[in-house]
Design a protein that fits this description.
The structure is a single chain. β2 and β3 form a beta hairpin. The chain is globular. It has 3 domains: 60 residues, OB fold (Dihydrolipoamide Acetyltransferase, E2P); 72 residues, Orthogonal Bundle (DNA polymerase, domain 1), CATH 1.10.150; 53 residues, Orthogonal Bundle (Helicase, Ruva Protein, domain 3). The longest helix has 15 residues. It is of the alpha+beta class.
């Protein structure tokens, strides 16, 4: 079972990366939270890995922090939550935010994630409220997030296009994604900000339109 993977970042998209190590390129599917912390192409990268084996496939899911991996594992215990939906939830909510939503029984916060729906959101709250203590959060998690943040991600139109692509991969229609990203950029005085900030502000715009 592959538990972690370190190597050179050969490809990066909003939902997947290819990490090359030992002459082999490993395809790893990731949430947005991991995507916007990645270094540039060709740089060294290390991810926590959850390997999911099916009858006809072996798929790797990667996370920047152990807490994200633990959150993914917990979500996989919920009926009707598969890997794709788990990644979608962790693309919108950090582990801390997920724990907070479950603890407060904030079904609407979870329902706001594309593809979740009210019934699944209710299941997540009901089935995980007694298990969220398993997530080891707090200062160590926040420190890991800060120290691992990618340097100089913000830069201009390319970041806006990346943000639109990321939102489309989450399930939003391209026209809605572009409108939200443009609105977020306008609110912040332009595109020269970190991709993480642009995406989070765009998600806030989309949530306000619901």
């Amino acid at each position: 079972m592959i538990a972690s993977l370190s190597g050179r970042l050969k490809q990066r998209d909003s939902g997947r990366v290819v990490i090359e190590t030992g002459g082999v390129g490993y395809e790893v599917f990731i949430p947005l939270a991991t995507y916007y912390r990645l270094p540039g192409l060709g740089a060294a990268v290390s991810l926590e890995i959850r390997q999911v084996v099916r009858e006809d496939s072996l798929t790797l899911y990667g996370f920047f922090t152990p807490a994200e991996k633990q959150a993914f594992d917990l979500l996989m215990q919920v009926q009707h939550v598969g890997p794709k939906l788990g990644l979608a939830i962790l693309s919108v909510l950090s582990p801390d935010e997920l724990v907070s939503a479950i603890a407060r029984e904030d079904v609407e916060r979870l329902d706001a994630v594309p593809g979740v729906g009210a019934k699944v959101a209710e299941r997540v709250v009901r089935e995980l409220r007694d298990k969220i203590a398993e997530l080891k959060l707090g200062a160590a998690e926040r420190l890991a997030q800060r120290d691992g943040a990618a340097d100089g991600v913000g830069g201009g139109a390319a970041e806006l296009d990346d943000a639109v692509s990321a939102l489309v991969n989450l399930g939003y229609k391209p026209v809605h994604a572009r409108r939200a990203v443009d609105a977020a950029a306008a609110r912040g005085g332009g595109a020269k900000r970190e991709l993480e900030v642009i995406i989070r502000e765009s998600l806030a715009v989309l949530a306000g339109e619901r």
